[in-house]
Amino acid sequence: MSIVYDAAARTLTLHTRESSYQMQIGPLGHLLHTYYGRRAEGDFRSLHLLKDVGFSPVPHELDGETRGWSLDTLPQELSGANSGDFRLTSLCAVTADGRRGGSLRYVRHEIRRGKYALRGLPAAFDPDGEAETLSVTLADEALGLEAELLYGVYESRDLITRAVRVTNRGSAPLRLEKAASCCLDLPFGDWDLLHFHGRHAMERQPERVAVMNGVQRIGSGRVSSGHQHNPFLILCDKHANEDAGDCLGLMLVYSGSFEMELEQDQMGSLRLTAGIKSEGFSWTLQPGESFDTPEALLCFRHDGLNALSRRYHRLIREALCRSRWSGAERPVLLNNWEATYFNFDHRKILSIAREAKELGVELFVLDDGWFGRRSDDRSSLGDWFVNREKLPGGLEPLIRDIHALGLRFGLWVEPEMVSENSELFRAHPDWALAVPGRLPALGRSQLALDLSRREVADWVFETLVGLLRRYPIDYIKWDINRSLTDLYSQALPADRQGELAHRCTLGLYGILERLTAEFPEVLFEGCAGGGGRFDAGMLAYFPQIWCSDDTDPIERLTIQRGTGYGYPLSAVGAHVSASPNHQTGRRTPLDTRAVVAMAGGFGYELDPGKLSEEEKERIRVQIARFRELSPLLREGDLYRLTELDEPRDFEAWQLVSADRGESLMSLVLTHPRANPRPLHLRLKGLDPAARYRVERLDLFDAFLPEKPEPLPEIYTGAALLYAGLTLPRMMGDYPSVQLVLKKAED
Ligand code: GLA
Questions:
Q1: CATH architecture classification, 333-633
Q2: Which secondary structure element, helix H or strand E, spans residue 179, and what is its range?
């Protein structure tokens, strides 16, 4: 069993292969946290010395016995409001007569096989029957409040999941004001925070900062996880790096407004809470009703960030994403967005598709502009019928022609949105979010549909079902291009408007749940103005998400690196686009663009008609190479070969197959120097005892000032791991390298 209850010590311990997590039922029934860290057996209660800390209150029952026992200083599993803990609150409820708080005490616990599920929310599942669930029920009798703390333990995956189910056990309505998914107290350690911030076209920039005394917070109030902060963070020991040291990850399986807060308190303890954004949130529970929080995925590793990332990658691919495409080989696609923007017709699309087919592309994706009267981004969202001006014959003949070429067909939609200039809006103005009495803010000239309303969500679902039934569509790109504002629903009573943001997210999940179940063969790709909703909630339904509207490969190195700390390469939509790049104007070599796009769901986003014959030939080779490497790229273990903050002139990463038989190292030179230091790097993840043959070493677009000495054809794994290899000196604008190694037969 990976969950152990010690009745004498009153401890509950969760073990994964490399980590242990322990809690203890305190003398008065409070659920205290005792340890989360590298795997160790033991009773960790003694770590926490009782100390009388001035102005930290003591439960009434313990006065006279000890003044050192305080909820304000002891680590806890779920901190309740108004209970004598002045640090971050995880749960706050208010009764109809104004009693406010969440002073929780133990009622019972249960250990069971399998993984709990959440109502209406995506959550990790148990593909190989190894998960166990711990449920600990706590209650605040004075409020009629019950909180069931749910823990899922994946021993071999080194992952612990958490969620809370809150129930109103009273006889009158109870209003939740805060319901975090988890609270994690780390009493000791010297931590840095690694988080992923950004903006449109510059998502998930990794930033590592020291934890400060006081509160630090990241989050989103956009009813979308957003470009600005990602619902994933890592706490790492000051000395931890990519390959060594304590790291603790926390990822929310949630795509709506969220918050993640850290507080280093007066005693130097660190508290981390994460969940639905509490500002503006409230949720009323009638007697007997329950509320499920989104799930949090926790991982602790003692051996650095690379190991931590790989645990998340595997979990997302194998135990979170339900799509049958998650582990499957994906078609190489070509998307017409950067090729045509809104300006296309049947002939143009078909000529792009024909050229794409000749390059080896397998899926053609028709992006924005095919519907309603859409000729720019100011109209027609909601009118999901074909644009007869551009496609007078309709979609059928276009899809038929594209299928006849031997290509699959994909379509762009933005179903959560409505343009004011649309038939849908004219028919149902009240379906859009707006505060009565004032004009709502626009984003990209559009409004958001109120998906908290059943009839609106049903309409979106039926519309998509209609499209997918009518047309033989193989792929859907599901976009959303604004943040939600003016939160007010015509369908909710005044005292329930605080539920709207979360209800919209639940509405979206409900649609996705039904749609992906009904069309399991369709490949869905998420998108939100690029990567503005790149989170584990969306990845439960969609195996891939467009990573950023910035397709410049040099910018993408940072965006994709940041994304890869939590999310697998197989989830990262990445395309080769034209040069000069449309977003930055930078010129980069075609093969370097492909090397970077191969660190993701590989595709193209350019007009192949504008390519030279030589470029076309290179693309054919790229696609063939991608096909060959695709299992490794999709499922290989990822190793970042450079440290985040070290000064360097290149970015390099490596993928290694599970049996360590095969590996691909990729490198992009980002800064050529007049008199550079040797380009030396040590590989990772290989079997030191094995011998590896250099299958391929490509130096793409490199001007080599000296004729390079040939590299050995065979290396021992140990030589590559410990001595490393020095690459020839390369000059020029952004040359790149791919090195393929295969275990040599003895
Ligand atoms: C968003 C997406 C782009 C493209 C446009 C179309 O910005 O990220 O890839 O689909 O919308 O309007």
A1: Alpha-Beta Barrel (3.20)
A2: strand 174-186
